[in-house]
Design brief:
Elements (H helix, E strand, L loop, with lengths): L31 H18 L20 H6 L16 H7 L14 H12 L20 H4 L25 H12 L10 H13 L5 H9 L5 H10 L2 H14 L18 H12 L4 H10 L8 H10 L1 H4 L13 H17 L18 H12 L1 E3 L14 E2 L3 H43 L4 H37 L6 E2 L2 E3 L5 E4 L7 E5 L14 H4 L5 H9 L6 H14 L20 H13 L4 H9 L12 H6 L12 E2 L2 H11 L50 H5 L18 H9 L1 H17 L3 H12 L6 H20 L4 H17 L2 H4 E2 L1
Antiparallel strand pairs: 1-4, 2-3, 5-6, 7-8
Helix pairs in contact: 1-4, 7-9, 10-11, 12-13, 12-20, 15-16, 17-18, 21-22, 21-23, 28-29, 28-31, 30-31
């Protein structure tokens, strides 16, 4: 590989093509995540609020506007196109629902803010709409279950025979046999093996997210043993940094954040316990089926002691951290939080978009609306910890991490008073609801009256409304009393977790609207997998979460092991064997190597659901150890490298970039964070929709320990494609933008690390030549070439001359010159990318 190394790295350095086929692949079909967004966030809003007046079912659409097909949306009505894809501010539909124009307000009652924002975001992303071309045919209204179960991902996992290949000597493992067989079929040759320097850097970043040290490089390169790479993998898997790296991958999937996501974004200081639980579990190589059970139903698992029970309870932080919405106490939109739970459960563990069935049977996959509400009942029977909102600024229902005896001793009197106030609040709320129903009846009756009788009835209604307003006032007073009482709660160690609540089956929400209940659906598993019910004796006393956890973690479940194995492959190679890792449904892509996927899934279960054994199985293959070079004839046949004839070069993700800057400059604090972030005291929380939580807390610890807010991303993670804190991030973007180059040129953090690097070089090496080589050892892990030395010495000479001409004090010149050199190295492709 040609190594272009400038005196001072220019903007273009970041954009140099470092390998691959180049160009952009444009798919003719809508991306699966766009369709999922439309089905979950857009279609329900249109169906509930718009179709009554603007659908093809109506004899005459108002304003000539139809909204139930994409073509009609784009054509619009009497006022023109309803949407301008990509431009929500110029789209009439968005203007109408915002009620910003007195002459254009639809529907009559303004939508909820989250519904308006969903429509805005949909238009902003180009208004993807599967109701026309580009999507597969919508399945028939009636399910043919036998046919549905023929879909590749619903079939039982097979244990295929390892194929024979033409060159058996090339293969180092069974994985290579599957890969080689596909290459032979296409008459493709694989590239050469990577050298030791490349392998060490690749493996160390993959397993720890950090660069190797110069000493580690020297040790590995000098080891002549045939099992040197295997020993390296074993060492890396035993490091505590392994858990930090792979817990971060899982945190992407479960949309981890340290705040709740409501419109005030209330902090949740206790969530660090769940983060640390994940890190410890990955380091301990916790069997992944057990990890699933703990996260979904840890509080319902048996525990030998209080310590084990605490750990199990903390694990259910996975359910508790589901996103919160709104800021109202009365009519709190818990159904949206449960939808977020079900959506993440489906995508993360099963690779299914279950939440698309909230308002109707899934348009593409074998998931019914009854399936959705069968699962909904499980989570509706679960009490989520309450983080606080604008109108109730207190934490509630957090799970104490002490014995029941100690809880009763400390919390007994407090809880008795809280129950008293809550009962009073519920009684008044029921009275208000009843009065609202009576009001509707009174208003209907007055329409048929006239004269004095109508005036008398109007006075009666006015007096009735006055009394109703007094009831509302009492509700506000009791809510305030409850809030003040909650502030006096004795503090016990507690977790942002879940626990069982009153068990009950859910009723279908017609068109996804909770105010329109339909039939009751018993709690059960998905019908495509047999619809196994929560046993009646369990359903009477429990939510059914433990049964759900067991269904998900069952080795016979055709999805879970496949999905997990595919995710591990994705993180090692940059793309999964299934390239839509959170969508194994009809709209997802079929696996490039279906036999290999099933073979790995079978071994994964056979190995006790051990991730560390899976890492070794993949990384010891020759396929993993290839160089990232191009071969022209291979590119012509397989430009996307789906057959794995080479290793794909990848840019380091945001966390690895930040952690690497800290590591090479010697400023990384490698200690774990075992306490909450320094949030302000809870009695000082006055966050509102217009003044939400906006805290940030700097640290030199690894990025996994940074405080992560749902509504406020740090600039570094915005620039370098950090995860979405509000939705499951199965695949990180890997963009190349001018803002990234400018960030490395101008950002304060980068300049600070460059100065620390300069200080380290000046401290650890005695002359320019030794310092240049030390810089290369720390950052690029190789020797500097003669050409690079010459160019860098020229740069240092000119930099020193310029610093003298600018009257920079002598004691600061060397640090400034070497700081500039460090920034140049930081901006090179070789530093930013992983071969």
């Amino acid at each position: 590989m040609r190594r272009a190394f400038p005196q001072i790295a220019l903007l273009g350095a970041l954009f140099t093509v470092v390998g691959g086929s180049g160009g952009l692949a444009v798919e003719s079909e809508l991306p699966a995540e766009h369709v999922a967004y439309f089905e979950a966030k857009v279609r329900p809003v249109l169906a509930e609020h718009c179709y009554e007046c603007h659908s093809t079912e109506e004899k005459k659409a108002k304003g000539g506007l139809l909204l139930d097909t994409r073509a009609a949306l784009l054509e619009g009505g009497d006022s023109g196109p309803a949407i301008i894809p990509g431009d929500p501010d110029k789209s009439l539909l968005v203007k109408a629902v915002r009620h910003a124009d007195d002459d254009l307000k639809m529907p009559k009652e303004k939508l909820a803010e989250q519904e308006i924002e969903a429509l805005r975001e949909w238009v902003r992303m180009g208004a993807p709409d599967p109701r026309t071309g580009g999507a597969p045919a919508v399945r028939p209204a009636a399910f043919d279950w036998a046919k549905e179960r023929e879909h590749w991902s619903y079939r039982p996992v097979q244990d295929p025979v390892v194929p024979e290949v033409q060159d058996a000597g090339w293969a180092r493992s069974e994985v290579d046999h599957f890969i080689r067989a596909k290459l032979d079929a296409q008459q493709l040759q694989s590239v050469a093996d990577a050298d030791k320097r490349t392998l060490l850097r690749r493996a160390t970043y993959d397993l720890t997210g950090l660069p190797p040290t110069p000493d580690e490089m020297a040790q590995f390169v000098a080891d002549p043993s045939s099992d040197a790479f295997e020993k390296l993998i074993d060492r890396l898997l035993e490091r505590p940094q392994y858990g930090e790296r792979w817990a971060r991958h899982w945190m992407d999937l479960v949309r981890y954040a340290d705040t709740a996501g409501d419109n005030s974004d209330f902090p949740v200081p206790q969530l660090y316990l769940y983060r640390n639980y994940l890190i410890d579990a990955f380091n301990a190589d916790q069997p992944f089926n057990r990890l699933i059970q703990e996260q979904l139903a840890g509080d319902l698992l048996p525990a030998a002691n209080q310590e084990e029970r605490n750990r199990n309870v903390i694990a259910t932080g996975y359910v508790a951290l589901s996103r919160r919405f709104g800021s109202v106490v009365d009519r709190y939109p818990q159904h949206l939080t449960i939808e977020d739970t079900i959506d993440n459960l489906g995508r993360t563990f099963l690779g299914l978009t279950i939440s698309c069935a909230r308002c109707h049977d899934h348009k593409f996959d074998a998931i019914t609306q009854n399936d959705y509400f069968a699962l909904y009942g499980i989570f509706a029977s679960t009490k989520y910890a309450f983080p606080g909102i604008e109108l109730l600024k207190v934490q509630k229902d957090f799970v104490p991490l002490v014995s029941k005896e100690e809880q009763e001793k400390v919390l007994g009197p407090f809880q008795e008073k809280a129950r008293e106030l809550q009962a009073k609040h519920d009684q008044l709320a029921a009275e208000r609801k009843e009065r609202e129903q009576q009001k509707d009846e009174l208003e209907k009756s007055i329409a048929q009256l006239s004269g004095e009788e109508k005036e008398r009835k109007a006075k009666e209604i006015a007096e009735f409304n006055e009394q109703t307003e007094k009831v509302r006032g009492k509700i506000r007073d009791v809510a305030k009393q409850l809030e003040e009482h909650q502030k006096t709660r004795p503090r016990l160690p507690d977790a942002y977790a879940v626990q069982d609540d009153k068990p009950e089956n859910a009723r279908v929400h017609l068109k996804g609207e909770p105010s329109r209940p339909g039939e009751t659906v018993p709690r059960r598993w998905l019908e495509v997998f047999g619809a196994e019910p929560v046993p009646p004796e369990v359903a009477e006393k429990s939510s059914g979460r433990l049964q759900l956890a067991n269904w998900v973690a069952d080795a016979k479940n055709p999805l879970t092991a496949r999905v997990l194995v595919n995710r591990v492959w994705h993180y090692h190679f940059g793309a999964g064997l299934v390239r839509t890792p959170s969508d194994f449904g009809v709209r997802g892509q079929a696996p490039d190597h279906p036999e290999l996927l099933d073979w790995l899934a079978s071994r994964f279960v056979e190995d006790g659901w051990s991730l560390k054994k899976l890492h070794k199985r993949i990384m010891l293959s020759r396929t993993y150890q290839l160089v990232s070079a191009d071969v022209a004839q291979n590119l012509a046949v397989d430009p996307d490298n789906r057959l794995h004839w080479r290793y794909d070069r990848r840019r380091l993700d945001a966390e690895s970039l930040r952690d690497t800057l800290l590591a090479v400059t010697g400023t990384l604090d490698a200690s774990p964070l075992a306490e909450p972030h320094p949030f302000p005291p809870q009695d000082k929380w006055e966050f509102t929709q217009h003044h939400p939580f906006r805290g940030t807390y700097d640290t030199n610890r690894r990025s996994v320990y940074l405080m992560t807010a749902r509504l406020n991303a740090l600039p570094f993670f915005q620039a370098f494609d950090g995860p979405d804190r509000n939705a499951s991030s199965a695949v990180r973007d890997s963009s190349v933008t001018t803002s990234q180059a400018l960030f490395f040129m101008n950002d304060k953090f980068v300049h600070e690390q460059a100065e620390r690097m300069a200080e380290r070089l000046l401290r650890e090496a005695g002359d320019d030549s030794a310092r240049i080589q030390r810089a290369f050892d720390l950052t690029l892990h190789r020797a500097a070439t003669d050409e690079e030395r010459e160019r860098l010495n020229t740069y240092l000479s000119k930099a020193r001359e310029k610093l003298v001409s600018e009257n920079v004090p002598e004691e600061k010149r060397e640090r400034a010159a070497w700081s500039g050199l460090a920034r140049s190295i930081f901006r090179t492709n070789e530093f930013l990318y992983l071969d």
